[in-house]
Design brief:
Elements: E1 8-13, H1 20-27, H2 30-33, E2 37-42, H3 46-55, E3 60-64, H4 67-73, E4 82-90, E5 93-98, H5 99-108, H6 110-113, H7 118-135, E6 141-144, H8 150-161, E7 171-174, H9 180-185, E8 191-195, H10 198-205, E9 208-213, E10 222-229, H11 230-235, H12 237-254, H13 260-267, H14 277-284, H15 302-314, H16 324-331, H17 334-344, E11 358-361, E12 365-368, E13 373-376, E14 381-384, E15 415-416
Parallel strand pairs: 1-2, 1-3, 6-7, 6-8
Antiparallel strand pairs: 3-10, 4-10, 5-8, 5-9, 11-12, 13-14, 13-15
Helix pairs in contact: 1-12, 5-7, 7-8, 12-17, 13-14, 15-16
Length: about 425
C-alpha cells in the first residue's frame, strides 16, 4: 500500500440521506481498507462546513455541489479555492409546502393544482401570490438550505416556471436541513426545498405536502459532492485518492437494492440522521430517486459546474464576465476521480468517458450535460439531448462546445440538463 501523507482525517457531514457514502464507508470498513483512520463529524449547517474547511478544521466534507465553485470565485463570505473530486449522490431533493399553503392553492386554482404537474402547481402558487398581494397579506416564505445550493436553484426554477420572480414575489430564506421540519411546524416558513429525509418526515407528521421533486426539473442533478480545499488536495494527493476509493466503494454498495434496508437502519442512528428508519427506507426505496453510483453518477462532470455557474450569473450572485469554463475546469477535477476509479476497478470504461458542453434550445438556450435528458418545465415534456456516445461505442461523436448564448430572463421557462443514468 502507498504511504499516505495524512492517514488520520476529519471528514464532515450534514444529516441528510446523501451523506450516506461518508457514513457507510465507516460502517463497511472502507476507510480502513484504504489505510485511513477517519473521524466523521456531524455538522449543523452548510456555513459551518464552509468555515471549517476553509480553516482546516475539517480535511474534507460532504458539501453542496455548487458551493466549491462559489468559494473558489470568492462570491460567498469566504474566498478559498476548492475542488470537487467526486459526486456523492444524484437526485434526492424535493419541495415541501405546508398543508395550509396547499389548501390556499387548492382554493385559488383547483384546476391547476389538481393536475399534479410541477409548472401548473407553480401557477397555482402564483394565484395565491396574486391574491395575497391584492389583500395586503404577508408574502409567502420559502426556504432553501443555502444560497449556493441545488435547492435554491430548484426553487427559483420552479417559481420562474409559474411566472413568478423569486426575488420579488415571494420571500426566500435559508434554513439548515435538520431544522426545516421544525420551522414548517412553527409556521415560520410556508415551505422548503431540501434533501431527504426531511420532506418525508414532514409528510409523516402530517404537516407538509411534497409539491415536486428534483427530478421534475433535472433528472440526475448532482446533489452533494466531496469537497476539499485546493491546497489540501495538492499537499495530500495519495490521501485524497485513498479517500475517493473508500467513498466509491461505499457508493457501489449503496446502489445495490438489497442493501437499502440495512442502510436505512444504519443512517437512522442518533449519531447520524436521528430519524426513524422507516422514514429513511421510504425514500431510499423510491425508484431512481437516490442514485449513488450507477450511470457514472460519481463523475464530477464539468458541464454540471458550467450549469451551476450560469445559475449564479442568472440570479445575480456572480458577475456576468466570470470565466465559466476556467472555473469549472479548476474546481471539478475529473482527473482525480478518474485516477481513483481506475485503481479501484469500478469503472472499466472510465478512460472512455469524454465530456462535452452542447447547447440545446428548449424555449431558451442551455448548456447540456453529457448523456442528458433535457426537461422543459413549460410543456412538461422531456427531450433527449446529445448522448454521451463515447460510452455507446461512438467516441467520434464527442465534441466540445462550451460557450452558449446568454441566459434568458428570470421568469423564462427552463430546460435543465439531466443524466439519464
Amino acid at each position: 500500500m502507498v504511504d499516505l501523507e495524512r492517514p488520520r482525517l476529519k471528514v464532515g457531514f450534514i444529516p441528510i440521506i446523501d451523506c450516506a457514502p461518508i457514513i457507510l464507508a465507516e460502517e463497511l470498513g472502507s476507510y480502513e481498507r484504504q489505510g485511513l483512520e477517519v473521524e466523521i463529524r456531524r455538522e449543523v449547517s452548510w456555513a459551518n462546513v464552509r468555515d471549517k474547511l476553509a480553516l482546516g478544521v475539517l480535511d474534507a466534507s460532504h458539501i453542496l455541489a455548487p458551493l466549491p465553485l462559489a468559494l473558489t470565485l470568492g462570491i460567498d463570505s469566504v474566498r478559498v479555492p476548492m475542488i470537487n473530486a467526486m459526486t456523492l449522490q444524484v437526485n434526492g431533493n424535493a419541495l415541501t409546502l405546508s398543508q395550509a399553503l396547499w389548501q390556499e392553492m387548492e382554493e385559488a386554482a383547483p384546476d391547476l393544482i389538481g393536475a399534479g404537474h410541477a409548472p401548473l402547481v407553480a401557477r397555482a402558487l402564483a394565484a395565491v401570490v396574486a391574491k395575497r398581494a391584492a389583500t395586503g397579506a404577508p408574502r409567502i416564505v420559502l426556504a432553501s438550505v443555502f444560497p449556493y445550493s441545488v435547492q435554491n436553484y430548484m426553487v427559483r426554477q420552479w417559481l420562474a416556471s409559474g411566472g413568478l420572480d423569486p426575488d420579488r414575489d415571494v420571500r426566500l430564506t435559508v434554513v439548515p436541513p435538520p431544522h426545516t421540519v421544525a420551522h414548517l411546524s412553527a409556521k415560520a416558513i410556508d415551505g422548503y426545498c431540501v434533501g431527504e429525509p426531511w420532506n418525508q418526515r414532514a409528510v409523516a407528521l402530517g404537516i407538509g405536502r411534497i409539491a415536486m421533486t428534483g427530478t421534475d426539473i433535472w433528472r440526475g442533478m448532482p446533489e452533494k459532492v466531496l469537497g476539499v480545499t485546493e491546497a489540501w488536495a495538492e499537499k495530500n494527493p495519495e490521501t485524497l485518492k485513498a479517500l475517493l476509493k473508500a467513498l466509491i466503494e461505499a457508493c457501489v454498495w449503496l446502489d445495490e437494492p438489497s442493501h437499502r434496508a440495512e442502510a436505512a437502519q444504519l443512517l437512522a442512528s442518533p449519531r447520524y440522521l436521528n430519524t426513524p428508519a422507516d422514514v429513511i427506507a421510504r425514500t431510499l426505496d423510491l425508484p431512481d430517486f437516490h442514485v449513488f453510483h450507477r450511470g457514472a453518477a460519481n463523475f464530477p462532470w464539468r458541464s454540471h459546474a458550467d450549469w451551476f455557474l450560469k445559475q449564479m450569473v442568472r440570479w445575480g450572485q456572480a458577475a456576468a464576465d466570470i470565466d465559466i469554463a476556467a472555473t469549472a475546469d479548476r474546481v471539478n477535477r475529473t482527473d482525480l476521480y478518474r485516477a481513483a476509479a481506475r485503481e479501484i476497478g469500478v469503472h472499466s470504461d472510465v478512460d472512455n468517458i469524454r465530456e462535452k458542453r452542447t447547447v440545446t434550445t428548449l424555449g431558451r438556450d442551455e448548456q447540456a450535460a453529457p448523456g442528458v435528458e433535457l426537461r422543459c418545465l413549460r410543456g412538461g415534456h422531456a427531450h433527449r439531448g446529445i448522448a454521451d456516445r463515447a460510452r455507446e461505442g461512438n467516441a467520434g461523436a464527442c465534441r466540445d462546445n462550451r460557450d452558449g448564448p446568454a441566459l434568458a430572463g428570470k421568469t423564462a421557462a427552463l430546460a435543465s440538463p439531466a443524466h439519464r443514468g
